[in-house]
Every structure is written in structure tokens, then in C-alpha cells.
Amino acid sequence: MSARMMLLPVLAALLAIGCGSEDQLRRVEQEVGDLKLEVFKLRQSVEEGNKKAQADQQAAAEARNQDRRFQADLQESLRQVQDTTRVLNNRLNSQPKGPSRPAVEPQAAAAVSAEDERAYNAAVLDYNRGNYPLAAEGLELFLKTYPQSVKRPDALFFLGLCHYNQRAFDKAQAAFDRIIREHAASPQFLPAKLKRAQCLLKQGLKPAALKAFRELVDGFPGSAEARTAQQELSDLGL
Q1: DSSP state, 187?
Q2: Which of 3, 61, 62, 162 has the fewest CB atoms in 10 Å of its CB?
């Protein structure tokens, strides 16, 4: 047998081994490709999960912010209702309780004309409807037209509330200051002092606001305004 013939089986064996190695290599490459695809899919799933988690967190944060805004609006609306109720109660308490009422201050002795009453009520009606700019305009006109009206302190208080509800806290403070200076004997005196303190706080004048709240707490203990002032101080951590 020639040498060439003797090498044929060896060559055949080597070819078989080579083919087997190529098949194994292809299978390994296929498996690696499959693994890469799975890793890519997993990575996509993780990224989508992270995005969803971030979206859920943002939605939860927005919901909390909306809840806080709702609570703040609710508290502000409650304060407005309390202020309006206080005005009405003060007016009722200031009315004569019997035929022999003692003498009152000169302003309270001024008669209220029908025109005076209509002008004041129209402005208050605009306030109750939430039309604060129109109500403020009507109240300013009322104050100029009827400077001696017994409703002047009430008109000033509602004027302050109109500005307060429009976040014009400096103008609101000016209206409440006029009550404090000009109508110290009025039932609106303490409510005006409280709202003035709240205006100071809204304007960022915290030291002045704290002083004003403490004046109410210390100077008028037991009053509704003193209790509200104490709550304001508590809310500020004091």
C-alpha cells in the first residue's frame, strides 16, 4: 500500500474533526446570539420598569401637591366664610336690644338712609358672589359717598377682604389699618387686627406678623380672634 493511500484515513478523520468543531462553533455562536437577545430584552424591560416607576412617582407627587393645594384653598375658603359670618354677627350684636338703649358714639347716631343701605348691600352682594373687583369698586364709592355711615367699619372690612382675596395684601392691610385707627370702638376692630396680622404674614413680614398675633393673644384673651391668632402661631411652630 502506498504512502498516499495510508494518509487517506487520517485526512478523513481530520476533516471529520474539523467539521465537528465548526458545528460546535456555530452552535456556540448561536447560543451567544440568543443570550445577547435575552439580555437586550431584559435591559428593555428594566428600562421600561424604571420609566414606569418614575412616572408613578411623579403622578403620586402631583397628587400630593394637588391635595395640598386643595387643602389650602379649603382653609382659605373657610376663613372667608368665617370672616363674613363675623361681620354679620357683629352687625347683629351692635343693633339696639331694647327701646331704652344708652347713648352711642356720634357716628352710630347717624341715620342710615335707604340709598345708603342699597349701595352697601349691592357691594356686599358682589362680594358674596365672588366678584371682588366690582365689590371693591362699590365699597370705595360707598366710603366716599357716605363718610359718616354707621356701616363704614363694615364696608372697610369687606374692602379689605376683597383685596385679600385678590392677594393684594398691601391694600388689604391698609383697609384694616383704617379700621384700627378710625374705628377702635367698632365690632370690626378685633377682626381687623387679626386680618392685618395675616396680611403681614402673607407679605413675608414674619416678625411684624408674629408681634401682631401675640398682641391679640396677650391683649384680648378668650376672644375668637385671640384663639385664631394662637392657632396661627402654632402653625408657625411657636
Answers
A1: T
A2: 3
